[in-house]
């Protein structure tokens, strides 16, 4: 059975206080004792009738219970709607972010797809230091793709119609030695534009330790996570 709230308690107090108040008034303003008795009796009957209808009636309590359940259902439904909307919104947002991240990391030799077996036509390996044949900057290879994997807009901008066939050749991701002052920290270039530099150990780049643990005299030693992606380099 629902509990009596503050408003109901106040109503009971008013009803209970009405009897002595009315009796007091009748003492001062009644014409005679018979009239006062009649007034008092009517007051008692009216007060008791009102009280029984409000608090001793099963129908009244049933109505209160229905109202309480109705409000509870409304609150519950609103809460569920808010929860569903929140889950939908953040779920959609997370999915979109996840899709964008997956798409971004599949470009420019950043995919974590294991490169095994390694095709024989891939000339260079991760960890080798190379120089650009045209621009002269050097750096270290940190990844490769069997053919260019980049947004179509980027490919169209990089390769003129006469060089579109380069998109189907191996491409390498390079950490550029910052001392070259080239203005970029990384590059994604086709195989035909680079060549190996032997005996050049020092490549200065803030991400070197993330990719490599040291230098063995001929190339940089890959970190374990990178070696798993390029097991044959």
UniProtKB/TrEMBL annotation:
One of the record's GO molecular function terms: DNA binding
UniProt keyword terms in alphabetical order: Signal
Pfam families named among the record's database cross-references: YccV-like
Cleavable signal peptide: 1-21
Keyword Metal-binding: no
Recorded superkingdom: Eukaryota
Record InterPro entries: Clp_protease_adapter_ClpF, Hemimethylated_DNA-bd_dom, Hemimethylated_DNA-bd_sf
SMART domains tied to this protein: YccV-like
Domain (Hemimethylated DNA-binding): residue spans on this chain: 121-223
Name used for this protein in its record: FBX21 protein
Organism: Grus americana (Whooping crane)
Gene behind this protein: Fbxo21_1
């Amino acid at each position: 059975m629902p509990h009596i709230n503050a408003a109901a308690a106040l109503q009971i107090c008013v009803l209970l206080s009405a009897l002595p108040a009315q009796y007091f008034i009748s003492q001062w303003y009644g014409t005679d004792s018979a009239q006062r008795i009649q007034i008092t009796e009517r007051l008692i009957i009216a007060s008791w009738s009102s009280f029984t209808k409000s608090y001793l009636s099963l129908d009244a309590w049933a109505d209160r219970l229905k109202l309480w359940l109705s409000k509870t259902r409304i609150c519950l439904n609103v809460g569920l709607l808010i929860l569903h909307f929140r889950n939908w919104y953040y779920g959609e947002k997370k999915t979109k972010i996840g899709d964008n991240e997956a798409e971004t990391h599949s470009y420019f030799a950043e995919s974590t797809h294991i490169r095994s077996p390694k095709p024989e036509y891939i000339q260079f390996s991760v960890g080798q230091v190379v120089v650009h044949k045209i621009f002269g900057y050097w750096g270290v290879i940190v990844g490769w793709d069997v053919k260019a994997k980049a947004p179509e807009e980027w490919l169209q901008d990089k390769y003129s119609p006469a060089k579109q066939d380069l998109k189907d050749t191996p491409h390498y991701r390079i950490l550029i030695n910052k001392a070259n002052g080239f203005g970029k920290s990384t590059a994604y270039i086709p195989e035909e534009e680079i060549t190996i530099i032997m005996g050049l150990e020092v490549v200065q780049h803030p991400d070197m330790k993330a990719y490599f643990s040291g230098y063995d005299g001929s190339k940089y030693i890959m970190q374990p996570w990178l070696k798993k992606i390029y097991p044959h380099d």
